[in-house]
Amino acid sequence: MSSRFERGAWRVRRDATRTTRHALLLLTLTACERENRRFSENPPTAAPTASALVVSQLQPGPAVVEPKIEAPYDDNAWAVSEGKALFNAMNCSGCHFQGGGGIGPALMDEEWIYGSDPQQIFASIAEGRPNGMPAWKYKLGTQQIWELVSYVRSLSSLNPKGARGGRDDHMMVKPPEASTPQTKPKMASTPPGDD
Amino acid sequence: MLARGRTRCAHHCWRGIVAIAVVTTLLASCKGDREREPTRLALVARTGPATTGGDTAARFTDDGQWVRPGKDFQGTRFSGLTEINNQNVHNLRAVATFSLGTTRGVEAAPIVSGTTMYIVTPFPNFVYALDLTQPGLPTKWTYKPRPVNASQGVACCDVVNRGLVVDNGKVIFNTLDGRTIALDAATGKELWITQVGNINIGESVTMAPLVVKGRVIVGVSGGEFGIRGWLKGLDENSGNVAWTAYHTGPDKDVLIGPNFKPFYKSDTAKDLGVSSWPPDQWKIGGAGVWGWVTYDPELDLIYYGTSNPGPWNPEIRPGDNKWSTTVFARRPETGEAIWAYQVSPHDQHDYDAVNENILVDMPWKGQQRKLILRPDRNGYFYIIDRQTGEVLSAEPYGFINTTTGVDLKTGRLQYNPEKATRTGETVLYSCPAAPGAKDWQPAAFSPRTGLVYIPHQNLCMDEEGVEPNYIAGTPYVGTNVKMYAGPGGHRGLFDAWDPVGQHIVWSIKEDLPVWSGALVTAGDVAFYGTMDGWFKAVDARTGKELWKFKTGSGIISQPMTYSYNGKQYIAVLSGVGGWSGAIVAAGLDARDSSAALGFVNAMKDLPKKSTKGGMLYVFAL
Predict the structure, then answer these.
(1) Mind listing the pLDDT tens digit for each residue in B416-427?
(2) What is the ipTM of this complex?
């Protein structure tokens, strides 16, 4: 009687342990996917090459496919949050607000006038764009611009979810980046002066 | 405690809470069909003295023309034409159209001088001269000023232009990139170009100039960019800057001298433009001019108001912040300040004081007085003695909870401390919202009815101060805003206001903000447009809708009327945009309720109701 009871209890305990173990494993695995932490690395110093300035999809003759440059901070939650702080401190938010746009175009939608690739966004920030976007390369360093690039990409969920902001310290004006649905970037088909 | 609870609530449950002179002959012709006896009112000297110079004097009496956006120096937007009246306006039909070739918000008025209609468009500020003598109004000439593209980056609220002026055979207008340009009205040839603004310190120019006594009066936009606001007087013939009056800084820069006699003590002390700011903050204190300038030829004074102080977040700038949100009276030839009255000292909510000062002579408490009628952004309808700057009355014409009234003894606006804007705290339900109970859209005054026709909005907002950072050429605001409809749920109103009785006579509720100007005629018809494109005519005495026409895009411009060959025409420009319509004109994303300084949240449905456009419509019987 008592031994059977004890065996039953043991089985329950073993099941519980297994469940816990599975849960832990799952947690570990998902946690791994959350963010790839890199604790010691040099800041990116390289700005994208001149190819970033190509804004036409039409090339005469056989097209040259430029290698896509990875954004160094797309998967780095800390750098993305630094990008957000810069976005507000450098008054990007004064024109683009929290992504919906105003003086400058919306950044959280699917439309990209000058492209959504990291090097294209880098070029938009560093070199400026003709219809009102200031050129920031004399004010911000390469690392800061890369942080901004990844924050801007996070506004339409183009970077991994784990690195995107989950809450805002200010008045709630939109869903956090972590819960913004990802959009498929499209090149704007309106002329830049009419965006 | 309540405020704290509310603040916490801001992050979780705000939505739930929110749910919550005339010409005496005209007077004589007044119809007696109004219940109340028509008030005895007179426009100032519609037959202005010859000292006003130029060919403008003669035009005071010519209702066939419309040579400046406000129609006359007094800014009445009243026309004596009567062919189109409240009995036949329902027969109005479109007789001509013209595409402006632009798709941003059109706030300008068409201007008619002689047999030509002139129009300035939003950026890139094309100027068209259309021939009224030919069927279909063909173009006589087109002028392209080619403003710097980058100037679009320092235009806070769409890339608008509020109109041009014709004077002495010249067309004079401003460009977004800060130039004042004079053209030969007959040929479109450039006469002079003066660079008055600098985009690299956030300056742009959107207002219509006023020409008075050979002076072109021009002000600067950029209260959201940390500018140091100014008004300039340019020589009409050479374009040379004759004077510059700053609106912050020491008295000598503000052109305050021995003849400056403000009515209230709080406006009287040396160098208030410095001492009412934290050290050096006045150098980036805003106080631009982008609204309306009116002129009294008898007193020889121009009247205008200055914009909000910068940044919006008031905690950054303790003090009255003079001379932001201030009505000034100045001499047009020298710019010398004669009096000033600060409407909203230490502004909390972006209540610019740029709204029109309509100049009317009328009896006040038994005595004939020279007055300013002024529906201010802060929600009060001010009656000010324009000789002295004394506020005689300030009654609410919209829903207000940010202030409790105006103390007529001291002239001080009384703030409600519960609605004060604070850094890091969200204050819910502040009314009126940042664009005020009325923004730039000018009201009209009919001496026949004695009423002021006020196009305006009914919006409230949640507001949070944040730390701003001054970087020249970029926005300097420091406030998060989220707007929504005020009590009643309607976002717009077209009201007839009795300035003598200080009350609303009739009111038309509109779903969308009424962002167009008003026009009223001696035919007792008032006109306005809606942001979904309806151009409407209503009975000036009853508010009854008499006619409407659907234009291609939303209307946020200034309707006008003129006559050619003895026939009366009504004209309006259609093209949605401006601050309120930026969601359409600039294609903004409504998921961010702070977009376009928070206006997008109140206009989420606009893209379903209007598309971009830019078109002139001309109507006749």
Answers:
(1) 999 999 999 999
(2) 0.89
